[in-house]
Amino acid sequence: MTTTTTRAQSRHWSRHASNYDELFLDPFEPGVENPIVPAIGAVPDPGSKLAIDLGCGTGPLLPMLLGRFREVVAIDFAPAMVDAARQRLGPDADRVQFHVRPMDQLDDFTDRVDVAVAINSIVMPDVRDVDRTLSAIRRALRPGGVFFGVVPAIDAIQYQTMLLLDRALEQGNAPAEADRLAQQQAEHHLYDFGFGRFAFRGLRQKFWQSFELDYRLRKAGFGSVRLDQVLYPWDANLPLGEHFRGQPRSWDWAFEARP
Asked: What residue stretches are annotated with the Methyltransferase domain (predicted)?
Protein backbone atom coordinates (compact mmCIF):
# COMPACT_ATOMS: atom_id res chain seq x y z
CA MET A 1 0.00 0.00 0.00
CA THR A 2 1.47 3.35 -1.08
CA THR A 3 0.08 6.23 1.00
CA THR A 4 0.58 9.98 0.79
CA THR A 5 2.85 9.72 3.84
CA THR A 6 4.88 6.96 2.18
CA ARG A 7 5.37 9.04 -0.96
CA ALA A 8 6.41 12.09 1.08
CA GLN A 9 8.90 10.07 3.11
CA SER A 10 10.29 8.53 -0.09
CA ARG A 11 11.05 12.03 -1.37
CA HIS A 12 12.70 13.03 1.92
CA TRP A 13 14.88 9.89 2.02
CA SER A 14 15.88 10.42 -1.62
CA ARG A 15 17.01 13.96 -0.78
CA HIS A 16 19.28 12.60 1.94
CA ALA A 17 20.76 9.73 -0.07
CA SER A 18 24.01 11.57 -0.80
CA ASN A 19 24.78 12.22 2.87
CA TYR A 20 22.86 9.39 4.57
CA ASP A 21 26.03 7.65 5.76
CA GLU A 22 27.15 10.87 7.49
CA LEU A 23 23.84 11.57 9.24
CA PHE A 24 23.02 8.22 10.86
CA LEU A 25 24.82 5.63 12.95
CA ASP A 26 26.31 2.87 10.82
CA PRO A 27 25.90 -0.58 12.45
CA PHE A 28 28.65 -1.95 10.19
CA GLU A 29 31.38 0.57 11.06
CA PRO A 30 34.66 -0.69 12.56
CA GLY A 31 34.38 -0.84 16.33
CA VAL A 32 30.67 -1.71 16.31
CA GLU A 33 29.63 -5.09 17.74
CA ASN A 34 26.86 -6.24 15.43
CA PRO A 35 25.47 -9.74 16.05
CA ILE A 36 23.73 -9.74 12.67
CA VAL A 37 27.05 -10.09 10.83
CA PRO A 38 28.02 -13.50 12.30
CA ALA A 39 24.38 -14.61 12.19
CA ILE A 40 24.25 -14.03 8.43
CA GLY A 41 27.60 -15.78 8.13
CA ALA A 42 26.23 -18.82 9.93
CA VAL A 43 23.27 -19.38 7.59
CA PRO A 44 23.75 -22.93 6.24
CA ASP A 45 24.03 -23.75 2.54
CA PRO A 46 24.02 -20.09 1.39
CA GLY A 47 24.88 -21.01 -2.18
CA SER A 48 21.36 -22.34 -2.70
CA LYS A 49 19.47 -19.46 -1.09
CA LEU A 50 17.75 -16.19 -1.95
CA ALA A 51 18.47 -13.21 0.31
CA ILE A 52 16.56 -9.94 0.24
CA ASP A 53 17.80 -6.60 1.61
CA LEU A 54 14.69 -4.70 2.67
CA GLY A 55 15.19 -0.95 2.74
CA CYS A 56 18.66 -1.38 1.28
CA GLY A 57 19.49 2.33 1.54
CA THR A 58 22.88 3.09 0.04
CA GLY A 59 23.72 -0.62 -0.02
CA PRO A 60 26.28 -1.20 2.77
CA LEU A 61 25.03 -4.76 3.32
CA LEU A 62 24.91 -5.81 -0.33
CA PRO A 63 28.59 -6.79 -0.78
CA MET A 64 28.27 -9.22 2.15
CA LEU A 65 25.08 -10.73 0.74
CA LEU A 66 26.55 -11.04 -2.75
CA GLY A 67 29.55 -12.83 -1.31
CA ARG A 68 27.39 -15.51 0.29
CA PHE A 69 24.04 -16.10 -1.38
CA ARG A 70 22.97 -17.53 -4.72
CA GLU A 71 20.47 -14.75 -5.44
CA VAL A 72 20.25 -11.25 -3.95
CA VAL A 73 17.32 -8.82 -4.13
CA ALA A 74 17.40 -5.22 -2.87
CA ILE A 75 14.32 -3.09 -2.22
CA ASP A 76 14.00 0.57 -1.24
CA PHE A 77 11.18 3.05 -1.71
CA ALA A 78 13.57 5.97 -2.33
CA PRO A 79 14.89 6.01 -5.93
CA ALA A 80 18.01 7.97 -4.99
CA MET A 81 18.90 5.36 -2.37
CA VAL A 82 18.74 2.61 -4.99
CA ASP A 83 20.90 4.71 -7.31
CA ALA A 84 23.47 5.15 -4.53
CA ALA A 85 23.45 1.40 -3.84
CA ARG A 86 24.07 0.68 -7.53
CA GLN A 87 26.98 3.12 -7.55
CA ARG A 88 28.47 1.54 -4.43
CA LEU A 89 28.51 -1.88 -6.11
CA GLY A 90 29.86 -0.78 -9.47
CA PRO A 91 29.90 -3.69 -11.96
CA ASP A 92 28.50 -6.04 -9.30
CA ALA A 93 25.22 -4.09 -9.36
CA ASP A 94 24.14 -6.28 -12.29
CA ARG A 95 24.14 -9.27 -9.92
CA VAL A 96 21.43 -7.71 -7.72
CA GLN A 97 17.73 -7.47 -8.55
CA PHE A 98 16.82 -3.90 -7.54
CA HIS A 99 13.22 -2.80 -6.95
CA VAL A 100 11.98 0.70 -6.09
CA ARG A 101 8.91 0.09 -3.95
CA PRO A 102 7.68 0.09 -0.32
CA MET A 103 8.66 -2.94 1.72
CA ASP A 104 5.08 -4.09 2.21
CA GLN A 105 4.79 -4.85 -1.53
CA LEU A 106 6.23 -8.35 -1.52
CA ASP A 107 3.46 -10.46 -3.05
CA ASP A 108 5.74 -11.58 -5.90
CA PHE A 109 8.14 -13.01 -3.29
CA THR A 110 5.60 -15.03 -1.28
CA ASP A 111 7.22 -18.26 0.01
CA ARG A 112 10.40 -17.54 -1.97
CA VAL A 113 12.78 -15.84 0.47
CA ASP A 114 15.28 -17.78 2.56
CA VAL A 115 16.95 -14.82 4.30
CA ALA A 116 15.35 -11.39 4.78
CA VAL A 117 17.39 -8.55 6.25
CA ALA A 118 16.19 -5.09 7.31
CA ILE A 119 18.84 -2.77 8.73
CA ASN A 120 17.36 0.37 10.27
CA SER A 121 14.53 0.29 7.75
CA ILE A 122 11.57 -0.89 9.88
CA VAL A 123 11.17 2.71 10.98
CA MET A 124 7.81 3.75 9.53
CA PRO A 125 6.29 6.36 11.87
CA ASP A 126 2.78 4.92 11.34
CA VAL A 127 2.61 1.56 13.13
CA ARG A 128 -0.03 0.38 10.66
CA ASP A 129 2.69 0.52 8.00
CA VAL A 130 5.01 -1.35 10.36
CA ASP A 131 2.45 -4.11 10.89
CA ARG A 132 1.72 -4.42 7.16
CA THR A 133 5.43 -4.61 6.38
CA LEU A 134 6.23 -7.23 9.00
CA SER A 135 3.28 -9.36 7.85
CA ALA A 136 4.46 -9.08 4.23
CA ILE A 137 7.95 -10.19 5.24
CA ARG A 138 6.51 -13.14 7.14
CA ARG A 139 4.55 -14.24 4.06
CA ALA A 140 7.63 -13.88 1.84
CA LEU A 141 9.70 -16.31 3.91
CA ARG A 142 9.93 -19.92 2.85
CA PRO A 143 9.53 -22.64 5.50
CA GLY A 144 12.77 -22.54 7.46
CA GLY A 145 13.44 -18.95 6.42
CA VAL A 146 14.84 -16.31 8.77
CA PHE A 147 14.42 -12.56 9.18
CA PHE A 148 17.36 -10.58 10.58
CA GLY A 149 17.08 -6.91 11.49
CA VAL A 150 18.37 -3.89 13.33
CA VAL A 151 16.15 -1.06 14.56
CA PRO A 152 17.00 2.19 16.38
CA ALA A 153 16.49 2.04 20.14
CA ILE A 154 14.56 4.76 21.96
CA ASP A 155 15.72 3.40 25.32
CA ALA A 156 19.32 4.01 24.24
CA ILE A 157 18.49 7.72 23.98
CA GLN A 158 17.12 7.58 27.52
CA TYR A 159 20.31 5.82 28.65
CA GLN A 160 22.47 8.52 27.05
CA THR A 161 20.29 11.16 28.73
CA MET A 162 20.90 9.54 32.13
CA LEU A 163 24.67 9.71 31.64
CA LEU A 164 24.48 13.30 30.41
CA LEU A 165 22.36 14.26 33.43
CA ASP A 166 24.82 12.71 35.88
CA ARG A 167 27.71 14.50 34.19
CA ALA A 168 25.92 17.85 34.41
CA LEU A 169 25.14 17.30 38.11
CA GLU A 170 28.74 16.25 38.83
CA GLN A 171 29.87 19.51 37.25
CA GLY A 172 27.90 21.38 39.93
CA ASN A 173 24.81 22.38 37.97
CA ALA A 174 21.53 22.76 39.84
CA PRO A 175 18.98 20.02 39.03
CA ALA A 176 16.86 22.19 36.73
CA GLU A 177 19.92 23.34 34.77
CA ALA A 178 21.28 19.79 34.64
CA ASP A 179 17.94 18.63 33.21
CA ARG A 180 18.07 21.38 30.58
CA LEU A 181 21.64 20.54 29.56
CA ALA A 182 20.95 16.81 29.30
CA GLN A 183 17.82 17.39 27.23
CA GLN A 184 19.71 19.75 24.93
CA GLN A 185 22.74 17.51 24.50
CA ALA A 186 20.58 14.43 23.84
CA GLU A 187 18.45 16.47 21.39
CA HIS A 188 15.16 15.69 23.09
CA HIS A 189 13.36 18.14 20.80
CA LEU A 190 13.72 15.58 17.99
CA TYR A 191 12.01 12.73 19.90
CA ASP A 192 8.55 11.69 21.01
CA PHE A 193 9.44 9.29 23.83
CA GLY A 194 5.84 8.22 24.46
CA PHE A 195 5.33 6.79 20.98
CA GLY A 196 8.96 6.20 20.03
CA ARG A 197 9.22 8.65 17.14
CA PHE A 198 12.06 10.76 15.76
CA ALA A 199 11.85 13.71 13.35
CA PHE A 200 14.88 15.24 11.63
CA ARG A 201 15.13 17.35 8.47
CA GLY A 202 11.80 16.15 7.16
CA LEU A 203 12.52 12.51 7.97
CA ARG A 204 10.19 10.75 10.41
CA GLN A 205 11.27 7.48 11.99
CA LYS A 206 10.08 4.90 14.47
CA PHE A 207 12.45 4.24 17.40
CA TRP A 208 11.89 1.05 19.36
CA GLN A 209 11.66 -0.47 22.81
CA SER A 210 12.52 -4.17 23.03
CA PHE A 211 9.06 -5.17 24.27
CA GLU A 212 7.36 -3.49 21.30
CA LEU A 213 9.73 -5.14 18.84
CA ASP A 214 8.92 -8.56 20.26
CA TYR A 215 5.20 -7.77 20.29
CA ARG A 216 4.98 -6.57 16.70
CA LEU A 217 7.06 -9.41 15.29
CA ARG A 218 4.86 -11.97 17.03
CA LYS A 219 1.72 -10.09 15.96
CA ALA A 220 2.91 -10.47 12.35
CA GLY A 221 3.14 -14.25 12.75
CA PHE A 222 6.74 -14.86 13.78
CA GLY A 223 6.74 -17.69 16.30
CA SER A 224 10.39 -17.43 17.31
CA VAL A 225 11.91 -14.05 18.17
CA ARG A 226 15.38 -13.57 19.61
CA LEU A 227 16.58 -10.09 20.57
CA ASP A 228 20.15 -8.86 20.90
CA GLN A 229 21.98 -5.53 20.85
CA VAL A 230 24.21 -3.74 18.36
CA LEU A 231 26.81 -2.02 20.56
CA TYR A 232 28.35 1.29 19.48
CA PRO A 233 31.69 2.69 20.61
CA TRP A 234 31.68 5.92 22.58
CA ASP A 235 32.95 8.31 19.93
CA ALA A 236 31.99 11.53 18.17
CA ASN A 237 28.84 9.90 16.74
CA LEU A 238 27.24 9.96 20.21
CA PRO A 239 26.64 13.07 22.36
CA LEU A 240 29.79 13.77 24.43
CA GLY A 241 30.72 10.16 23.76
CA GLU A 242 34.38 10.66 24.62
CA HIS A 243 33.40 11.29 28.26
CA PHE A 244 31.63 7.94 28.70
CA ARG A 245 34.17 5.42 27.46
CA GLY A 246 34.23 3.67 30.83
CA GLN A 247 30.47 3.08 30.75
CA PRO A 248 28.54 0.23 29.10
CA ARG A 249 28.04 1.02 25.45
CA SER A 250 24.96 2.47 23.80
CA TRP A 251 22.93 0.24 21.50
CA ASP A 252 20.37 -0.41 18.83
CA TRP A 253 18.15 -3.46 18.90
CA ALA A 254 18.97 -6.49 16.72
CA PHE A 255 16.67 -9.43 16.17
CA GLU A 256 16.39 -12.84 14.56
CA ALA A 257 12.81 -13.89 13.80
CA ARG A 258 11.47 -17.11 12.34
CA PRO A 259 7.92 -18.21 11.43
From this structure: 52-145
